[in-house]
Amino acid sequence: MMHPLIFVLGAVFFLMFDGAYAAVELSDDMKEMAKMLHDQCVDESGVNGALIEPCSRGDFADDGNLKCYFKCIFANMGALSDDGELDTDAFESILPPDLHDPLSKMINNCKDPKGADACEVAFNFNKCLYTTDPEHFLVI
After folding, report:
1. Minimal CA–CA distance to 110: which of 96, 121, 95?
2. CATH number of the structural domain spanning residue 78
3. Residue 11, in any domain of the structure
């Protein structure tokens, strides 16, 4: 059985990297597990899947289900508690070495997001990451 952190790592990197990071290759197993996490969070949150991809360009729809989709992803990473406490160390622990510096700077800049609940915290964290460094922003 695969360790849960490895599952999350693969899932996160499958969902995070677009064409700009094509050098990061994942096994078919990791892609499959990532798709399972994505599908689980789409189902759990009820988000319209068409709202997720535009976030990669900074187009964050003010949609409660989208906010809860991000919460689901981060909670499954072990990086966000149900009460909205973000664990930036959990994020940093899974960064790939070749992208650690720019992503670490983004995470540290956004480590204290505010929100009315965990869904809004996760959403605001994503928006902060994009604002901090759109070039390295990763859709999770």
Report:
1. 121
2. 1.10.238.20
3. no
